[in-house]
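Input (structure):
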């Protein structure tokens, strides 16, 4: 009798397991259709931002190394350059731009695969039910999305701080100068060296503030906090960046701080607003599915 009761109980659990597996498949399709793009965008932003940080860091190190070997701050004025620094800047932008669509496609496939992966079956239907509950698609999606929230905001802001302003300067340089294209690119090396020597600290300060703001957004307790938060952080970051450029900018007739201020107006407030807007919209999409 005991064996028969156990068998009947196992049969009931197996029936519940079959129903739970069918329900899980429906939930997987629902979650994937609505949150796949959110995860893909976050992964792509994080990857592009990381590439920008690495490329910008390599450019800074190369510029500082050249100045250390070739006469310090005056190197940018007295040397035409060979295009190494401008090449690093351009390649950083190009690599970040290429990485975005590539990573977005790959991340979408990874997301679908993670949701579709069912837990390993055991001999006991009771154990299978417990494992299946722990592997709910909503739970998996929430963990994946939460893990990318901070880097998807911090890394792009930090990367943009390192290569964004000089990228804008390079665009203006190509529009406002004439002559052989290769020579113009090589000549921009001098401007990069001067910029890093004069206001490199400001770039680093802005990168740190951007990374901190990204973590602040990710740590926001709820959607109401994000919606009520103002965009003052972007303007505050611009102010701290201009202040950082006063050294050694104040020794150069305040020209570097003025350049930083005008360039920052075109980059900093808008980028901080964009980061907050992205997190707000993505959390709204997540809340509609995961709540």
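Output (sequence):
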């Amino acid at each position: 009798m005991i064996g028969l009761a156990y068998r009947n109980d196992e049969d009931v659990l197996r029936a519940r397991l079959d129903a739970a597996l069918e329900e899980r498949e429906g939930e997987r399709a629902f979650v994937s259709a609505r949150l796949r793009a959110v995860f893909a965008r976050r992964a792509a932003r994080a990857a592009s931002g990381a590439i920008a940080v690495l490329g910008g860091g390599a450019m800074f190190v190369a510029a500082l190394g050249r100045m250390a070997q070739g006469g310090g701050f005056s190197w940018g004025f007295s040397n035409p350059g060979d295009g190494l620094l401008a090449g690093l800047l351009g390649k950083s932008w190009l690599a970040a731009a290429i990485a975005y669509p590539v990573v977005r496609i790959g991340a979408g496939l990874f997301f679908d695969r993670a949701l579709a992966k069912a837990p390993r079956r055991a001999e006991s239907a009771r154990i299978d039910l417990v494992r299946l509950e722990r592997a709910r698609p909503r739970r998996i999606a929430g963990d994946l999305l939460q893990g990318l929230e901070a880097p998807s905001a911090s890394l792009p802001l930090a990367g943009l701080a390192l290569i964004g302003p000089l990228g804008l300067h390079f665009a203006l340089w190509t529009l406002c100068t004439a002559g052989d294209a290769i020579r113009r690119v090589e000549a921009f090396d001098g401007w990069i060296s001067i910029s890093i020597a004069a206001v490199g600290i400001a770039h680093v300060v802005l990168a740190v503030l951007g990374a901190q703001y990204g973590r602040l957004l990710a740590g926001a307790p709820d959607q109401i906090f994000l919606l009520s938060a103002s965009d003052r952080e972007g303007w505050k970051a611009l102010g701290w960046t201009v202040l950082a450029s006063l050294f050694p900018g104040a020794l150069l007739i305040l020209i570097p701080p003025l350049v930083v201020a005008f360039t920052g107006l075109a980059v900093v407030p808008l980028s901080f607003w964009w980061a907050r807007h992205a997190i707000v919209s993505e959390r709204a999409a997540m809340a509609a599915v995961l709540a």
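Notes: The two ends are 45 Å apart (CA to CA). DSSP finds ten helices and no strands in the chain.
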